[in-house]
Amino acid sequence: MMNIHFSKYHGTGNDFIIIDNRLMNWEPNAQQVSSLCDRHSGIGADGLMLLSEKSGFDFAMSYFNSDGNESTMCGNGGRCMVSFARSLGLSASVARFWAVDGPHKAETVETRPEPIYRLRMKDTRIGKIYSDGIFIDTGSPHFVIFVEDAGSTDVYNLGKALRHDQRFAPGGTNVDFAEQRGESLFVRSYERGVENETLSCGTGVTASCLANAYRSNANPGLCHVKTLGGSLAVRFSRTGELFTGIWLEGPAKFVFRGEAEVK
User: Which of 21, 74, 83, 93 has a CA-to-CA distance to 166 between 20 and 30 Å?
Assistant: First the structure.
């Protein structure tokens, strides 16, 4: 039995438990993570993140989905981690950190009424084009489907069916449903590991913007996105199937801090 101190953050409704692990060096098991993320008997979150030391970087970020398993890159989580690191005095307006998919750079833009956090995502290419969607890896694998009305789409059941589709074996995929609304997108996402729809998914928003630019043969440079939890933006450059200079922008908000008992 141990007690841990945690902070709760969210990025456009995608919420996380964040723990300063520099002194604890805690290696949580799947049951501990899933118990803490449980919305009825735990703190409640889409995922849990650990901040650790990393030579040559301001910090390192480890991310666990709410099912307890360590996962791939989380865009909203990365921005929340940067905000948390700033609260600890570990970074200034520019942060460099290490995540599961390698090095990342982040910038804090002091806008009002709240700062905007810009996270540099890895360069990527369009993965594979299918008749029903586009597969692309933006640090996490995503299958992007363009629909006429994302608001009425059965995200849970359709996403659940495609999440384990044999085309994406063995690890499966996240599934995003994107609707073009004028010059912006409305995106809803089914996240693997959470095994449900989340209010927002940073890597999914990024994947949707890139897939949309590819299918429309455009290079807009800036893509505005609405999610159920709020607004995000993605900046990028495109050369054919290659996307570089990708930045995910949006808020990252502190919710509360506390102490929890872990068995």
Answer: 74
3 state SS of 82: helix
Query: Mean of the per-residue pLDDT values for the chain?
Result: 96
Structure tokens belonging to residue 207: 């994947």
Alpha carbon distance 236, 213 (integer Å) = 10
The two counts, helices (H) then strands (E), for the chain are 4, 17
User: Do the Cβ atoms of 234 and 246 come closer than 8 Å?
Assistant: yes
Question: Domains of the chain (ranges plus CATH)?
Answer: 2-115+252-262 (3.10.310.10), 124-250 (3.10.310.10)
The residues assigned a catalytic role are 74, 201
Q: What is the pTM of this model?
A: 0.96
* HEC string for 173-198: CEEEEEEEECCEEEEEEEECCCCEEE
